[in-house]
Design goal:
The structure holds three protein chains of three kinds. By secondary structure, chain A is of the alpha+beta class. Chain A contains 15 helices and 18 strands. A seven-stranded mixed sheet of chain A has the order 8-9-10-1-11-18-12. A five-stranded mixed sheet of chain A has the order 15-14-16-13-17, with helices on both faces. Chain B is mainly alpha-helical. Chain B is about 75% helix and about 0% strand. By secondary structure, chain C is mostly helical. Chain C has 15 helices and no strands. Classes of the chains: A alpha+beta, B mainly alpha, C mainly alpha.
């Protein structure tokens, strides 16, 4: 449920997909890249809805926010939690308590000390602030204790070994307690301990940042200055890169060839984002299980992928991309395109082969929803498209559950359990039917209570994926990679699956 | 020039009424393998990003486009003409209120207002055209009022009033016949403006809902694929520009004014 | 495009000023100040009612995923949405007059802060656009009138008509293609303020300003040509020429002065035109202006931000109209008549 309101309609429909590393760019990205220091990077992507991580409302915000905020942990390129502000952590045996050890001498960018008390206040604020949009992820946090300046103990309601992953995202960004008093000011001026400090900000236009010398990992930040701009129009993005308006920009799949032809470097970075249909099985016509099943086979994912991103990405039958711990190989092709089977299932349903009326709800009809309409029609549905503004989608789809079928994107989550909760949990946003089979609940409980370093963890997680994909109505469509085009004077961008960071990047 | 313009508008009118029947292909038929194809004999204007025939979409989209434009002009007429006349005959109080209301509407920038209205009332062509129509009202108000004003001073109207003709009768028999041609010419001009407004709004992603074809919609979607088909937007843009030019020619043409009388 | 929509009736069809206007003049300064105030009240009421019509519940939209009915009620109370309409309006207008337009539902950023960060972009751009329009339109109009019937005259007429028929974004994208992609002379988008130097600012501002100005330039050229041709045929011009006054002096001292009225009226509606056209232009050139803010607010149903941008746009237009009216009454001889 990433909020794409900030992106233009056409840029959105063209947002790419794929893991075709070899085909695109040089793929040699990595934090190990060495280069000179200094330089200014101009980044065209999206600005944040708010500089307060607790009230920021868009999924994309995490990327910009991570320029100015740091968390106890961060995710490496494979999506594993690794130390950040904390030098390490330790769980108790039953997974209900985790103890983080802070690095010594940490400070916020204003120079005030970043100690255990500050971490405690920041996490409690995220959990307790009435306007908090991360509170739901912290309900399991019963208590945060700071026994001494360098130790933070988090006590949980039920066992959850995924807290270090969870805290690597927006949820765990540490906000300077000095700024807690005035959330309005915080929305415009961040107060964190991230790799950069914001020096000037024009809403919707430009954020100017300068390197934060007191950042714990400042040695790996080679850029002296950073400027972030909103996403350019698809029609002019290549020209904007060529003319030097940006050094790096996210581009839609339709612009990849043009960007390469213009001498730009293109990186197609696999991400956890996956396109999905949210299906409400308490609404007609999907209250009939045969119809819900037919939908899985009525969708030609490869054709949708081609429209969405000119084929950059992969068709998907599950929420996790290839290479991720939860990815279950056996699910590949499980609902391969088969309009005849879909028709047969509809014939077996209570509709007995009569055209099944279905409303496809979307926030932008052009592209994939149009094509979906045509595909469903061919499979025996009688589909119509209904367009609702993105801002209302939250209310209508996630809160009121009043839509039967919504064309959505799942932005992925730092923690797999969190991802499952959003997609399939009883209170999950993207589970509008609010139904969860007991076998899935069981599989999920098992995931939460398995330590991530347990050798059994991948098997347990994959088992849960398999149960979910077979028992839940969500229709996964294709992965949505992050396609970045950059000028030749910029070194390769490290390929993080979740939060894009810029360690080791240089501009010459 | 005038004949050419009339012929063009006639063609547009025919397409608007018969649109779907004249389209060589089904404007909604998708063929992903043919997506973004250059012009061929079968598809003289090429295909769009879903492999649909662009010529058919433009032909079939004429109706919705023209209806939307006329819709907004209709709203403008409705809200502009009657108050325009009312301001002349219903006394100073009414006149003062109406004039200030019109002044207020004239301070609203067209597209900003339309964007705001769709933001609040929902993103649909009807809402957008309603907004544009409301902003057309001052145009019709002023034109009607100006034409009517000259008449209130005309001796034959004064004479009719002196002879005890009712206001409604004066309006009907004398004024209406004189005001109508001016209003018609303004409406032609406004229709052209409405066409451009619709195309601007669809460019911004407001109003037209795919897959329904419209001129502005075809143009807006072409702009997303300039890298593949840089020539494609020229066709719908030319179609819009020529139609607007034809309407303007007619509106500027004094002969047309006389003919309308 | 919008210039076309708001183009005043052609001079040939111009009617005497409505009596309302004449009365206002008699009231003098009081009227000149009172009328815009009344109009402002009308516009602000319209703007505010628009927000009240909104079918979406802002509290639910903001709270989104975690909303409960109790949360929504609490948030509605926090936004003050549980009060009577007129109380809300009076409160909002009172706040607006003191520079407080409320806070965005979504970001909690004060609306006034967002708007006053964006407004200078529009003002600088609109200024440049109108300057360009006056220069281009004025030169073309005068040249066409002086060489009436020549090839140049016809060319001006054709180009001016054609510009009015093109979808506005077609002009913007055309300029990007020519100047940024093909000629690589100017950046395709982005913006820096004039406070960073006039030349750097011009590099970014000239294309969008040009895109905004062409439409108005066309209107000015047409109006000026028509009225200048009419003036040049007047007896006093012939008389002046007979008395041996220089052609330049006749043109600038007399004819132009008398002919400039209708063109100035075009300028009066140019401000709403520029602000309206700015939505599309800002989108194409990625400019951080008011229109971009309105578009974003509209996509998010951020009612306070929508109301705020609209109110500020209206205020700017109203101020400019008042200024143009004052200018009109000083420059043209007709205007100076009591």
């Amino acid at each position: 449920m990433n909020n794409i309101a900030a992106l233009s309609r056409r840029s959105f429909l063209a947002l790419g997909a794929a893991t075709l590393l070899a085909a695109c760019g040089d793929g040699t990205a990595g934090p190990g890249a060495v280069g000179g220091t200094g330089g200014t990077l101009k980044w065209g992507w999206a600005l944040t809805t708010s500089w307060d991580p607790v009230t920021s409302s868009a999924g994309w915000d995490v990327h910009v926010l991570s320029l100015v905020y740091a968390g106890l942990t961060k995710l490496d390129q494979q999506g594993n939690a690794v130390p950040a502000l904390a030098s390490g952590w330790k769980y108790n045996a039953d997974g209900t308590e985790v103890t983080f050890t802070l690095r010594p001498g940490l400070t916020f960018s204003d120079g005030s000390p970043l100690d255990a008390a500050a971490v405690k206040k920041s996490l409690e604020r995220g959990r307790d602030l009435p306007k908090s949009l991360v509170a739901a992820q912290l309900v399991n946090v019963k208590e945060v204790v700071a026994p001494d300046g360098g130790t933070v103990v988090i006590r949980l309601g039920v066992a959850d070994f995924q807290i270090p992953n969870l805290l690597a995202g927006k949820t765990g960004m540490i906000v300077n307690p000095a700024a807690h008093a005035d959330p309005g000011a915080l929305a415009l001026k961040p107060a964190g301990a991230g790799p950069f400090t914001l020096t000037s900000y024009t809403q919707n236009a430009k954020a100017v940042l300068v390197k934060n010398p007191s950042y714990w990992d400042a040695a790996n930040i080679k850029l002296q200055n950073f400027e972030a701009y909103p996403l350019p129009e698809a029609a002019t993005v290549v020209a904007a890169l060529q003319s030097g308006q940006y050094d790096v920009a996210q581009i839609p799949g339709s612009q990849v060839e043009a960007a390469k032809a213009a001498g730009l470097q293109v990186q197609v970075i696999p991400s956890l984002v996956v396109a999905v249909l949210d299906v409400n099985i308490t609404k007609k016509p999907f209250d009939d299980p045969k119809v819900a099943e037919a939908l899985h086979y009525a969708v030609d994912r490869a054709a949708l992928l081609k429209t969405a991103s000119f084929g950059h990405g992969e068709v998907a039958y599950q929420p996790f991309p290839k290479g991720y711990a939860g990815y279950d190989q056996a699910l590949d092709g499980i609902y391969a395109y088969n309009p005849d089977k879909a028709k047969a299932l509809l014939a077996e349903s209570s509709y007995k082969g009569a055209p099944v009326d279905v409303v496809i709800t979307t926030s932008a009809a052009a592209g994939v929803p149009e094509q979906l309409q045509s595909q469903l029609q061919a499979a025996g549905f009688r589909p119509t498209i209904e367009v609702i503004p993105q801002a209302q989608a939250t209310q209508l789809v996630y809160v009121q559950h009043s839509k039967a079928l919504f064309v959505d994107q799942f932005a992925g989550r730092d923690s797999a359990v969190q991802a499952f909760q959003v997609l399939f949990g009883k209170e999950g946003l993207m589970n509008p039917g609010r139904v969860q089979p007991p076998e899935l609940a069981e599989a999920l409980a098992k995931v939460s209570s398995t330590p991530l370093d347990d050798p059994k963890y991948p098997t347990v997680l994959q088992a849960a994926t398999a149960v979910a994909v077979r028992s839940m109505p969500n229709v996964f469509l294709y992965t949505v990679p992050r396609i970045l085009a950059r000028r030749p004077n910029v070194s390769a961008i490290p390929e993080f699956t979740v939060v894009q960071r810029f360690e080791g990047v240089t501009v010459s | 020039m005038r004949r050419l313009a009339l012929a063009g508008l006639l063609l547009v009118a025919v397409l608007a009424v018969a649109g779907g029947l004249l389209a060589p292909h089904d404007p909604l038929h998708q063929d992903p393998d043919l997506a973004l194809h250059a012009p061929t004999w079968a598809h003289p204007f090429g295909t769009d990003y879903l492999g649909r025939d662009v010529l058919s979409r433009l032909v079939a989209g004429t109706g919705a486009t023209v209806v939307a434009a006329i819709e907004s002009v209709g709203v403008g007429l409705l809200l502009g003409v009657a108050p325009g006349l009312a301001s002349l005959w219903l006394g100073r109080g009414v006149e003062w209120v109406l004039l200030r209301a019109v002044d207020a509407l004239m301070t609203l920038p067209f597209i900003v207002f339309a964007v705001a209205v769709t933001g609040i009332l929902g993103n649909g062509l009807t809402q957008a055209m309603l907004a544009i129509g409301v902003l057309f009202a001052p145009l019709f108000f002023r034109v009607t009022r100006a034409a009517g004003l000259a008449l209130t001073r005309a001796q034959y109207v004064e004479a009719a009033e002196l002879f005890g003709a009712s206001r409604a009768r004066v309006l009907r028999t004398h004024v209406w016949g004189k005001v109508l041609p001016t209003v018609a010419v303004t409406a032609a001009q406004a229709t052209g403006g409405a066409l451009l407004a619709v195309s601007s709004l669809t460019f911004l992603g407001i109003g037209v809902q795919p897959p329904a074809p419209t001129w502005g919609g075809v143009l807006a979607s072409d702009l997303g694929f300039l890298a593949q088909q840089p020539w494609a937007p020229i066709i719908p843009a030319a179609l819009i520009a020529l139609t607007v030019a034809a309407l303007n020619t007619l509106a500027d043409d004094r002969g047309a004014l006389r003919a309308a009388r | 495009m919008t210039a076309l929509l708001q183009r005043p009736p052609a001079p040939a069809r111009a009617r005497p000023a409505p009596p309302g206007r004449a009365r206002r003049r008699r009231h003098g300064w009081l009227g000149a100040v009172a009328t815009p105030v009344v109009v402002f009240l009308f516009s602000s009421l319209l703007t505010f009612s628009l927000g009240a019509l909104s079918p979406s519940n802002p509290a639910a939209a903001v709270l989104g995923e975690t909303a409960t009915p109790a949360d929504i009620a609490r948030m509605n109370h926090e936004f003050g949405l549980d009060r009577p309409f007129l109380v809300q309006y009076a409160d909002w207008l009172g706040g607006a007059l003191t520079g407080d337009l409320g806070r965005s539902y979504f970001t909690t950023i004060p609306v006034a802060d967002s708007i006053f960060a964006a407004l200078p972009v529009d003002l600088a751009l609109a200024g440049l656009a109108i300057l360009l329009a006056v220069l281009l339109g004025g030169a073309a109009g005068i040249a066409a009138a002086l060489r009436r019937g020549s090839r140049l005259d016809r060319a001006v007429t054709v180009v001016a008509s054609a510009l009015g028929t093109l979808p506005p974004f077609a002009i913007g994208i055309g300029l990007v293609v020519v100047f940024s992609v093909l000629l690589k002379l100017l950046p395709a988008g982005g913006y820096i303020g004039p406070q960073h130097g006039l030349l750097p600012w011009l590099r970014f501002a000239i294309l969008p300003a040009l895109a905004l100005s062409l439409d108005i330039a066309a209107s000015i050229a047409r109006q000026l040509r028509t009225s200048l041709v009419a003036q040049l045929g007047e007896n006093y011009v012939t008389g002046a020429v007979v008395r041996g006054l220089g052609a330049r002096r006749v043109l600038f001292g007399h004819a132009l002065r008398n002919a400039v009225g209708p063109a100035l009226t075009v300028l009066g509606v140019a401000v709403p035109t520029v602000l309206g056209g700015a939505v599309v232009t800002e989108k194409i050139f990625n400019l951080p202006g008011l229109a971009q803010l309105a578009l974003q607010a509209s996509a998010q149903h951020d009612v306070p931000l929508i109301q705020g941008t609209l109110l500020v746009a209206v205020t700017v237009v109203l101020l400019c109209n008042t200024l143009v009216n004052l200018a009109l009454s000083r420059v043209t001889p007709q205007g100076r008549r009591p």
